Amino acid sequence: MRMPPIHDHGHGHGHTHDHGDVFHSHAPADKMKTAFFLTLVILIVEVIGGLISHSLALLSDAGHVLTDIAAIGLSWFALKQEEKPSNEKMTYGYYRSGILAALINGMTLILITGWILWEAYGRFQKPEEVTPVWMFVSAGVGLLMNLYLGLGMRKEEDINVKSAVFHMLGDAAASAGVIVGGIIILVTKWYVVDPILSVLIALLIAFGAWKIVWQSVVILMEGTPKGIDFQKVVDEIKLVPGVQHVHDVHVWSITSGKNALSCHVVLDGDMTIRDSQKILRDMEHRLLHMGIGHVTIQTEDGDHPHDDSEFCAASECHHRH
Fold it and tell me: What is the C-alpha to C-alpha distance for residues 305 and 291, in angstroms, rounded to an integer?
């Protein structure tokens, strides 16, 4: 008996699980709008303070804030795009726009890191006198505003929002470092502290930027999502009574926190369509509890041509089918 070829529980066939929240949650676009304008204020304050005080650490932080404005602006735009519904040309909707924004954010942070390190090298060669008071005032404004913004959105799961939050918390840490550096300079007149702080800020930026870029690339390459154990997923499907084998398995993310799976399963030959539907519901239930909310499963009997491999290269799949 040939089983029904394709099943996708995301379209509502009387199932007990409603996964609308998996694909249609609304991101905090209004919060990003507020963050954009408050970060603009931070930039103005730190640029003025950096120029008056001659502090590279403060100007470095202002450079970081400049990328924050671009980052938050991109995130704000992406969040609005994600609210658009799916259509014939974009069947998954616009969720990937947030991943693209996160990738651009991470790349700009890496570039700004290079600029900070270059400027710091020059200051090590020839330290400049710094005025600590303006460092305190400007960095204090940046610290308070970034803590307010970053802590207010720290629980968001969207990678796009996370990337923007990292910008904010990174700026808060950098501002705190500038204040500490200002105190040291005020007491000791040791002006080389300023470029040292700049290097530490650059390393902080680079570490977070690399994580953002890597996570974004994995999603865009449709790699197995973070937190999903591929082999455990396959083993869980095989544990469903009536399933003989599973192959052509693909697990990926539409965007951060929105995981999808497609696969082919070989079912026992002597069963009705109703029996096969019970098996499908069992698989969906198990996968949902493993963090996979959008599932497409092709059911087959043992006579259907297939390769036993759990993986399937696109060219091989195309050739077989």
Answer: 30
- Please, where in the chain does CATH 3.30.70.1350 lie? 225-320
Q: Cα dihedral sign for 306, 223, 225, 81?
A: negative
User: How far, CA to CA in Å, does 117 sit from each of 89, 109, 128, 254?
Assistant: 44, 12, 16, 36
How far CA 81 is from CA of 33, 73, 110, 174, in Å, comes to 14, 12, 25, 31
β-partners of residue 258 are: 255
Specify burial of residue 64 (Cβ count, 10 A radius: 0-12, 13-18, 19+).
buried
pTM for the model: 0.68
| Average pLDDT value for residue range 219-231 | 90
Looking at residue 284, its pLDDT comes to 92
In the block, tokens 């006579």 appear at 303
Identify the CATH number of the domain defined by range 23-220. 1.20.1510.10
What's the pLDDT score for residue 98?
Answer: 76
What is the pLDDT at residue 157?
65
CATH 1.20.1510.10 positions along the chain are 23-220
- Backbone conformation region of residue 268, classed left if phi is above 0, alpha if psi is from -120 to 50, else beta: beta
Q: Which amino acid is at 130?
A: V
Count of beta carbons in the 10 Å neighbourhood of residue 173? 18
Based on its alpha-carbon atoms, the radius of gyration of the chain, rounded to whole angstroms, reads 26
Nearest of 205, 200, 165, 166 to residue 180 by alpha carbon: 200
The predicted-structure confidence for 138-186, as pLDDT tens digits, reads as follows: 888 888 888 888 887 767 666 667 777 777 777 787 788 888 888 888 8
Tokens linked to 291: 């963090």
The C-alpha atoms of residue 42 and residue 77 are separated, in whole angstroms, by 21
Angle between helices 96-125 and 193-220 (to 10 degrees): 160
Residue at token pair 């009997």: 301
Both tokens of residue 203? Answer: 């390393």
CATH 3.40.50.300 fits 225-320, yes or no: no
pLDDT at 67 over 50: yes
| pLDDT score recorded for residue 251 | 94
